[in-house]
Amino acid sequence: MAGHTAAPAKRKEIYKYEAPWTVYSMNWSIRPDKRFRLALGSFVEEYNNKVQIVSLDEESAEFTSKSTFDHPYPTTKIMWIPDSKGVFPDLMATSGDYLRVWRVGDSETRLECLLNNNKNSDFCAPLTSFDWNEVDPNLLGTSSIDTTCTIWGLETGQVLGRVNMVSGHVKTQLIAHDKEVYDIAFSRAGGGRDMFASVGADGSVRMFDLRHLEHSTIIYEDPTHVPLLRLAWNKQDPNYLSTMAMDASEVIILDVRVPCTPVARLNNHRACVNGIGWAPHSSCHICTAGDDHQALIWDIQQMPRAIEDPILAYTAGGEINQIQWSSTQPDWISICYNNCMEILRV
Prior knowledge:
This protein is an all-beta fold. 0% of the residues lie in helices and 52% in strands. The protein starts with 13 loop residues before the first strand and ends with a strand.
């Protein structure tokens, strides 16, 4: 490159950040102007918890904390708005007792709105997870221990021409499972706006269409009805999704065209799996991570033939409770364990 005399320092393969508390939730920022920025949520077993925004200073090759704010209870999930063009306000959402949408500023992060679907009672049914629709960032879906999923509509209106006020309303709420719902994820199928799936304590994966909410499709049921904790859709091929059961050391891959029969089982972990992340840029790569300190990347293109071994393995310094594959920088994966967050070049 013209103007550069010295050769740039070789970028490291691993960067590590140590938070002041155990890290539980984590998410990569998607905006093109904030490349190595992540949000981290604390896991402290009391009311007062924290969310911290960190970013990589590429000069010093260190992660630094940009801002920290208080959050009631641990966040069950954090997501940045899926805005790859940077046209929306710089928003982030968290789930816990409620769904909250935050606006991230240079110096401070402020609460834009708190979305609560239990208007009539003092009782609050905690949210286990949520998903932010990539095709329409004005749609979010939450899953709750009260057996329901709620689809929210978000409005980002102009007020006085300079401040975006964010508000939200319930578009629909449905009883999704017979027991607690543990995760929800929008599918890219059929336009990417209307289809979503959920998993829960009844051991089933169910698929819904916002245009036909009178019925749902059961994609999979655990034979012994063990609760299913997580689900994740393949980012390139909307026929495939993965899920994992409570305390299980394997990840199950499903094909919606062949309900109730897993097309693959990934079972090299030596302890329970905690996280699943599909590659953003490839239909046949998936990363799994768990209590055995391992993050494993698998190539699944030979399905339905058995997939014996991962193609890459990384051993962390503790039990990995979260893995996130960066959608805008597909050669970087982040993991967290104990009070550490690491990003790994793959």
